[in-house]
Every structure is written in structure tokens, then in C-alpha cells.
Amino acid sequence: MSLVNKLYSGANHYRLTTSFNNCRRYSVQKKHFDIVVIGGGIVGSASARQLLIKHPTLNIALVEKENRFAFHQSGNNSGVIHAGIYYKPGSLKAKLCVEGLNLSYKYFDEKGIKYSKCGKLIVATNRSEVSRLLDLYERGVKNGVKDISLLDSKEIKALEPHCSGVQALWSPHTGIVDWGEVTNSYVHDFVSMGGQTYLNFEVNRFSESENSEYPVTITDTKENSIQAKYVLTCCGLQSDTVAMLTGCPEEPKIIPFRGEYLYLVPQKSQLAKVNIYPVPDPRFPFLGVHLTPRIDGRVIVGPNAILAFCKEGYKWSDVNSKELKEILNFSGFQKMALKYAGFGLKEMMRSVFMPLQVMQVQKYIQEITTSDVERGPAGVRAQALGKDGTLIEDFVFDSKPGSGAIGSRVLHCRNAPSPGATSSLAIAKMIADKIKDEFKL
């Protein structure tokens, strides 16, 4: 395991912090931009940065509805830097993940962002899982994942003494980082190149302006507005809501799934030095409970996957009746819920009863007990869903050409699925190229 100990220097940290303290919350004066990027998560921030790299003379704004960047998915995740093992060979997800991992490590080194290339074990705990593990290995090889190998039970123990399994896939280039810090670094780059940021600007209306040069007016909930020639939206959990403001269809619908983590108590953190994952079960839509060492030294156990009762539902008590009604009435959700009813019930039980979640990791680290864990953080995943109940795993872009200035000048990134953070720099390059083609820049 190699650990890069480069940290932001005090001067760099000061510049980054000061930059965000000076960010414009919003402006009562109308501003005019060549491109407005809506959504200050990791994909929106990386895309705004890349657009300015590609088109340094353009006037570009980055708009975020919260009071800071990386407020939702980008700042509430496990922090894993994925290598690209799981994805269908030849798919865009596989290509962008492998490319994104290489770009990410290069960027971290250039910017002095702390990370750990600690690696990942995907562990088969019984013989019935070995064939699926071998399939994963073949996928990883086809996807160009570097240096992956298969380990036997003794080699697993040599690498991770507390872990038991009959066979495992070892990915040495999988790592961990604080993706919220990375997002803020992207924004810092964007601002330093002349980009304008707006925080606390919650978009709720697009309208056609009288200014033919800047035909799209973007208005927030406080009636502040800015004008743009072109617009890109990367709104994550709110991507369907924002897309519908410009006349796009509801589908793909974003269904929020909360992932709850447990912490290993600090004195037990030595039980997992690397990422330890189960072999995923193809009958179920998510990867399963795993162990992840975080960059802050804690180890998290999880996540489960349960329906959140609103788009930004980080707790059971977070309920938005309007959003919940829309979710429950969506035909795609009804079909998915019926298909995965048993799985969903088990996940809910694991949410309430910690021992049930602990049992999942005892399959490969038997000595972990309920007394070794405590409640940890939670994140909400924006899961795109089709009307037929299919979980949409590929990228979805949407606009409505022919509907006037707005539809022909707005591009929505409606789905940038996991591993979106790892892939963010590669996704940004793809989006910048798409923007150039769509808008003839």
C-alpha cells in the first residue's frame, strides 16, 4: 500500500478557502454569460473547469443552489477511486472510469491532494461465488484495468490478515480520496481562470429573454436572474426536475436511494487497511456491504440501499410528501419495487437493526461484532429509472431542439452514474466536446 502524503500547503489552503468565502451567493444585477453550468457537484464543477480550459475566452458561470459546492452526492460518498472492474466491456462507463482514474491520480499529484492508493479486494467467501469472481476478473482485463490479479486464501491473508475468503480479485490501483475536496479544487481552478460562481442560487425557471445575444434567462427562487447564450445542467438528484423546467420529459426519473454507513470504532480501524468488497450478486442492483478505509483514518461499513422519502433524504425523518408521491406514482418505480421487494425489505431491516448489517461483513472479517460499530454518515444516490422499471446505468443527455431559444440552447446531463466521481475529469472532457458539437462553439 502506498500513501501519498502531499497535503495542501498553508498558502494553498488559504487561497482555496478565501476563494470560496468570496464566492458570490447571488447577484441582484443581471449578468450575461456565454455558458452557464447549473450544478456545483463534481460533474458540474469538472465540466465548468474543462469548458474554460477548452474555451478560455468565454465568460462562464457555475451555479449551485446550496451554500457550498459538493453539498450532496459529491460530498457524501465512500471516497473510493474505482478502477473500472464492474462495467460492461466496451461501455462508456468502463472507458470513462479507466481514463478517469488515470486523470484523477495525475491531478491529485499536481494539486497536492491527499489520497491513498490502498487497493481493493473483492472476496469470494464460498465456492459458489468463484465463477462470478472469475467473470469480474475477465471484465477487468477487457476493460484495461491495470495490474489486477487473482489471489488464493493464503495470499488474501498475507495482504489483509483479518480477511477470510476462498479466492479474491486484487486491484492495487483502487484508492481513496475526499471527493468533496476534489470538487472544491475543480471550482478553485475554474475561479482562478476567470469563471464566476453563484451559490444559494436555486434555479426554478427558464425563460426566453428579449436580448437576442443572450436569449436564455435563468431565474432563481428569490427572483434573481442571469442570462446566457447556452446552458449545461448537471443537477444530480434534481436533474429530472430541472430538465422538466425546459419542457423535457419526466423520464428518466431520478429515484433517491439512501446509503447508510456504519463506522468501525477507532480502536478497530486496523481491521481493514484496504477496500474489502463482496462479490456482487447479479440478482440485485447494488454492490453490497463493504469495508472502506477513509482518508481521515476512519473505516466505514456499508452502505445499505433504501428508498429515501425525498430527493435529499439523508435521514428517515426527511420527508417531502410531494416528492414521495411522485416517486410512488411513477410506473417505473412500481415495477422496480415489485421486482426487488424482498431485497428492499432486507435493506430496510438492516437500516433499523445494526447487527444485520454487521452480519454482511462478518462473511469475510469474522471478528467484527456489533460492539465494534457505530452509526456513521449517509449519502443519497441519484438512481435514474425508466418507465419499464429498468435501472439506467449509462449516460443520458437531453434537450428539446425546435422549442425556441431555450430548448435549442440547453443541454441536460440527466444521468452521470457511479463511478461519476472517479470518472469526473473524463466525463468533463466528453461533455466539453459534446457542448462544442451541440452549440457549434
Going by helix content, strand content and strand pairing, the class is alpha+beta
The count of helical stretches stands at 13
Sequence stretches where pLDDT stays below 50 over 5 or more residues: 1-29
- Tell me what portion of residues adopts beta-strand conformation: 15-25%
How are the SSEs placed, and which strands pair?
Layout lengths: L1 E3 L5 H12 L10 E7 L3 H13 L5 E4 L16 E2 L10 H20 L3 E3 L2 E5 L5 H14 L5 E4 H7 L7 E5 L3 E3 L1 H14 L3 E3 L4 E6 L7 E5 L4 E9 L5 H6 L8 E12 L10 E4 L11 E4 L5 E4 L3 E2 L13 H9 L1 H9 L1 H12 L1 H8 L11 E13 L10 E3 L5 H6 E6 L8 H16 L2
Parallel strand pairs: 2-3, 2-13, 3-10, 6-15, 13-21
Antiparallel strand pairs: 1-5, 4-9, 5-9, 6-8, 7-8, 11-12, 12-13, 14-17, 14-18, 14-19, 16-17, 20-21
Entry keywords:
single chain; 441 residues; alpha+beta; eight-stranded mixed β-sheet; five-stranded antiparallel β-sheet; 13 helices; 21 strands; 24% strand; globular; disordered N terminus
What does this structure look like?
With 441 residues, the protein is α+β, with helices and mostly antiparallel strands. 33% of the residues lie in helices and 24% in strands. The protein is built from 13 helices and 21 strands. The strands form four sheets. Strands 2, 3, 10, 11, 12, 13, 20 and 21 form an eight-stranded mixed β-sheet that branches. β12 and β13 form a beta hairpin. α2 crosses α13 and α3 crosses α13. The radius of gyration is 22 Å and the shape is globular.
Sum this structure up briefly:
With 441 residues, this protein is of the alpha+beta class. The chain has helices at residues 10-21, 42-54, 92-111, 130-143, 153-159, 179-192, 239-244, 321-329, 331-339, 341-352, 354-361, 404-409, 424-439, and strands spanning 2-4, 32-38, 60-63, 80-81, 115-117, 120-124, 149-152, 167-171, 175-177, 196-198, 203-208, 216-220, 225-233, 253-264, 275-278, 290-293, 299-302, 306-307, 373-385, 396-398, 410-415. The protein contains 13 helices and 21 strands.
